[in-house]
Write a structure and sequence with these properties.
2 copies of one chain form a homodimer. The first copy, chain A, is an alpha/beta fold. Chain A folds into 2 domains: 133 residues, ornithine cyclodeaminase, domain 1 (2-Layer Sandwich), CATH 3.30.1780.10; 182 residues, NAD(P)-binding Rossmann-like Domain (Rossmann fold, 3-Layer(aba) Sandwich). In chain A, 34% of the residues lie in helices and 24% in strands. In chain A, strands 1, 2, 3, 4, 5, 6, 7 and 16 form an 8-stranded mixed beta sheet that branches. The radius of gyration of chain A is 19 Å and the shape is globular. The N and C termini of chain A lie close together (5 Å). At the A-B interface, strand 3, strand 4, strand 5, strand 6 and strand 7 of A face strand 3, strand 4, strand 5, strand 6 and strand 7 of B.
Chain lengths: 327, 327
């Protein structure tokens, strides 16, 4: 069995980020059309490390992408100077079951997560959106910013984090990387009304901003809450939003952004417009005015991983990238 | 992340087969002591290929072995000249969740399956057993024979297969490889009474021999039946056997060798002695006479895969084998 191994650099060289956006656009449509098979993820617990290893298999029929992402959440890793969430992605040949490729799962997750919000922002934000507020500057922040910068001509970006020095460092680094005005802010209330696009990517368990301060026409991406216990988004946003899209229907079950207000009776399922892929396929409504507030919630899904991995693999093969190993 | 890739040759050089036997002895004890965490395997179906991909994670606490075997069953592969059941094994570091190694899952499965029956034969067969009958000469047959040849001084081996030419070719090859008298036979009834050890490793859905013809003192390994629909072992053997051991308790649920007679009421759960590891740990009875017939049923388990992979990995590291890749 020949297996192509692709590290982060190979993956970067294989495809510009625009390619990841195109890949996720395709995967979102595939999800909305019900062409994905994504079994419930499987968990192995490692109690003495407070660790867990998650197996996330997926099969995208239309993209002919089959694979499994293996993600280990080991909270003591950072103390050891190791990544907290090491991950690999195995791509399989859907005609033979053979392993085609082994990819860096951490980079893959970062990119596909950023790209999902990028596609959502492209579909939902006003065309003339020029300003963005990013709340949370952890490992997922860079690709969130990069993806939005590819779909809108950003002029100003503000970033906020509970740790102001971390926000400052991120702002400096991103100003250079993206050649954009990126500024760290310590007071959200002054900024919220100025942001055309707001993205939250934190691990918070309570809302991280005041929805009353958002301007009409704003688009919000909720990216950080992927368990029922986590929530970043104030229920007032859900109540104000004219459109509420999710990456897949699983997000409704998985995210505390929905589950907490649903449990409290302050929000109803019917207020969710649907899966973003339906809008991308022109089968669901998009923004109807410059005043509407729109919201996109993403919890991610193995379907996005397998489609992204397949597209990266094919691009890498064409360019002769990566290291081939014989097993 | 540094990942050591071990192909079949690396694995072979890392450890003599005796090492695999020792590894499985340890894993069987660990299983009987309840120190393994093996979640139900996860399946992804690929309907247009009649294919399925199975994810088999396991965590052996005492052996500190964590990993997942990925096995794809694609029945159309042989027509394409490809292995029907391609497989890889990912070994993870149980302290950090990082991937330590990628191994050939097909070789691993073959070896650990053979070794399990070897350990069982060592524990249950008479010390003076000198003859063996192997029923079924598919992909698992060679390691079955090799493992038994390491625990008993075999003088004569007979092999039988529905396809006599295949049996003949296997017998010739094995005679040379093991430097043993291995003969293909077409009539089982003449041989059954002469065999001290009988191993069945077929995909049959009905019993493959007549238990009445077995001699007193015979030991039988049932290896092929790993689904409820499959069965190789006649219920009369279960009724005659003084000891019935399983590799793990899951074998009772998984194998048609038990499930069919249980459903028909011709066999009772209480007749199963227990997990082989309990006998290895001297906590359960072994053979008490030269006349007792003993039986071992194995359906395999991810626990055996992870322990075997960990031991192979450590041996390979010590000898500097394999190819290190940086992801």
């Amino acid at each position: 069995m020949k297996i192509l191994t692709l590290n982060e650099r190979d993956m970067q060289e294989a495809m510009p980020f625009e390619g990841i956006l195109a890949s996720m656009r395709k995967a979102l449509i595939e999800s909305a059309e019900g062409k994905g098979e994504v079994p419930q993820r499987l968990r192995v617990n490692i109690p003495q490390e407070d660790g867990q290893t998650l197996l996330m298999p997926g099969y995208a029929k239309a993209s002919r992408a089959l694979g499994v992402k293996i993600v280990s959440v080991f909270p003591k890793n950072p103390e050891k100077g190791l990544p907290g969430v090491p991950s690999v992605m195995l791509l399989l040949n859907e005609e033979t079951g053979e392993v085609l490729a082994l990819l860096d799962g951490t980079a893959l997750t970062r990119w596909r997560t950023g790209a999902l919000a990028g596609v959502a922002t492209d579909a939902l934000a006003r065309k003339e959106a020029r300003t963005m507020l990013l709340i949370g500057v952890g490992g997922q922040a860079e690709s969130q910013l990069l993806a939005v910068s590819l779909v809108r001509s950003l002029e100003k970006v503000w970033v906020y984090d509970l740790d102001p020095r971390r926000a400052e460092a991120f702002a400096q680094a991103m100003s250079e990387t993206l050649n954009l005005s990126v500024r760290a802010v310590e007071d959200l209330s002054a900024i919220l009304s100025k942001a055309d696009i707001v993205t939250t990517v934190t691990t918070s368990r309570q809302p991280v901003f005041d929805a009353a301060l958002l301007s009409p026409g704003c688009h919000v991406n909720g990216i950080g809450s992927y368990t029922k216990e986590m929530s970043e988004i104030p229920v007032e946003l859900l109540q104000r939003a004219a459109l509420i899209y999710v990456d897949t229907k699983d997000a409704i079950e998985e995210s505390g952004d929905f589950q907490k207000p649903l449990a409290q009776g302050t929000f109803a399922l019917e207020q969710i417009t649907g899966e973003l892929g339906a809008l991308l396929a022109h089968k669901a409504p998009g923004r109807r005015s410059k005043e509407e507030i729109t919201f996109f919630e993403s919890t991610g899904n193995a379907l996005f991983d397998v489609v992204c991995a397949k597209d990266l693999y094919e691009a890498a093969r064409e360019k002769g990238l990566g290291q081939m190993l014989e097993l």
